[in-house]
Amino acid sequence: MNLRELEYFKAVTEQHSFTKAAEQLYVSQPCVTAAVNRLEEFLGVQLLERNKKEKAVHVTPQGALFLARVDNILSEIDEAIVEVRNYNSSNIHFGLPPIIGAYLFPSMFAYIRKRYPHVQFKVTEYGSRITTELLQEGKLDLGIIGQADQESISDLHSVLLYEDHLNVCVPDTHPLATRESISIAELKHEHFIVLTEAYVHHEQLMLACGTYGFKPNIVFESDEIQTVKSMVASGAGISLIVSMAVKNMPGLVAIPLEDPLPFYIYLCWKEGHHLSQDCLSMIECMRQLPLQGA
Questions:
Q1: Record's Gene3D superfamilies (predicted)?
Q2: What CA–CA distance (Å, rounded) separates 100 from 272?
Q3: pLDDT tens column, 249-262
Q4: Where are the domains positioned within the chain?
């Protein structure tokens, strides 16, 4: 039994045909048939049932049991190949939300580059929800995400980098613009301009309003923080936006909440996911980031 026989067997189960499997693998059909026959002979069981009348191939109960193991074996081998090839890699696939990418990451990157000028970053920008999923699936080396709380995240290691808070953002012509602080309860009849559910902001807004017994009147949603801010500045509504993203924007006033809504920013990586030496160095470097007052 060898790796190629396992790959051929899996291809036949996916295509339900020796001929189609051979086409997928760019080999001859007799080559695939012979490989599966050798595998069955080695195991002493029939893995596939050939139905000549239907011209189809079906997996036997023993074949289904074996296939589940084969899937795991081939996946493990693929991961091992990637890990070995990337062991000394200076390329780090990094994920983060656009808000953090625009307002926090530039200073972080400058700090890192001074200490590790050889490291190259490939950055993928999505909201915290999608970034978390990509980390859990092992599709990112490292990621920075925002959270509404300090609870641990399934399958991820995390390090708290920075703590911010959400402000109520209104146009400078709004009656509330002169307030020094405000309660969520006072926003019951306002129109909200919000980020989509891919962002923690959306969850925090829904939870905060729910605490005061009302559902926010959302009139506009966007994946772009700049669009949300511009819409608010134009007078289309108000929003809840993390403090770092609302500094010094013309036409916009940020009002602190009387009961603050925290926004925690974490560096995360997948449990059990192999990290190159440069990734490990990045984690230690980012633990020491001087982000206070960012």
A1: 3.40.190.290, Winged helix-like DNA-binding domain superfamily/Winged helix DNA-binding domain (1.10.10.10)
A2: 26
A3: 889 999 999 999 99
A4: 3-77, 91-155+265-288, 163-264
